[in-house]
Amino acid sequence: MSTNILVVYKKNHEKVHDQSISKVQQVLADADEVSFSMRAREAVSRADFIGRDLVIVVGGDGTLTSICHNVDAETPVMGVNSHPRKNDPEGSLGFFMDSTVDSFAQDLQCTLEGKAIVNTLPRLQATITSTSGNIIKTDPALNDLLIANTHQYAPSKYRLQRGGVDEKQQSSGLLFSTWLGQGAWISYVAELSSLKADKRDADSHYFCVSRELANGQCAMAWTNKATIITSDMHRGYAVPDGWDEYHFNRGASIKVALDGPTLSLLTFNRHLS
């Protein structure tokens, strides 16, 4: 039976990326019992992911996080770094991209034979309930999820409830992060080491950080409890992985928890968790 593959690639007309895309395409064309479709990140839609046996992302971490919300828990994802930093200081670190163009043929064969390392990664998700009772779930977030006032010059006002915590805050916004999301920008806004977070709890716990404007203190948590936010903002938004925005108004309730669908990410040299 043929393996049905979707290839999503970063298209920015830079020579190094175009060359990488062409090499990946050639390897797939030469592979036995493989059928595949190529889609630019800017043109891909949810329908492109349905019925696929494998999704291959060619680019950097940003390319992967921008499209992986379309991938369900059952479909494995393989990341190919099209411009590795180890070859060029201007390239991509590619934390989630464990394959390169040079190793792609070997890594693809490893995947087709079921020998790749399968990392089951938890994802954050926000559930927004409006005052009229409408319920909207955001896309799942692999790295981080921001909740803030859409007007960046205005404070984010809300009531926060989590476990035994119940307080009103005015802050610059709330930033939630998975364990692996420490590699994104949450590490620049908080000293997470003081929380004594343990990666053995990464499947059940997440970070929550807010910088309270009244006293300038940073409120932090490493928790497995859902966070409930009641908006006191005329307009706020939830932004998973810096991508789509989900807007809400005053009185809306937003639940954030590590209960989004997991992501099955393939690696070949190391476990991510």
Question: Can you put this structure into words, describing what you see?
Answer:
The radius of gyration is 20 Å and the shape is elongated. The mean pLDDT is 93. It has 2 domains: 3-115, Probable inorganic polyphosphate/atp-NAD kinase, domain 1 (Rossmann fold); 123-260, Tumour Suppressor Smad4 (Sandwich). The protein has 273 residues and is mainly beta. The protein has 3 helices and 16 strands. The protein has a 16-stranded mixed β-sheet that branches. It starts with a strand and ends in a 6-residue tail after the last strand.
Q: What's the overall average pLDDT, rounded?
A: 93
The CATH class name of the largest domain reads Mainly Beta
Q: Count of helical segments?
A: 3
Structural class: mainly beta
Provide the descriptors you would attach to this structure in a database record.
single chain, 273 residues, mainly beta, Rossmann fold, Tumour Suppressor Smad4, 2 domains, 16-stranded mixed sheet, 16 strands
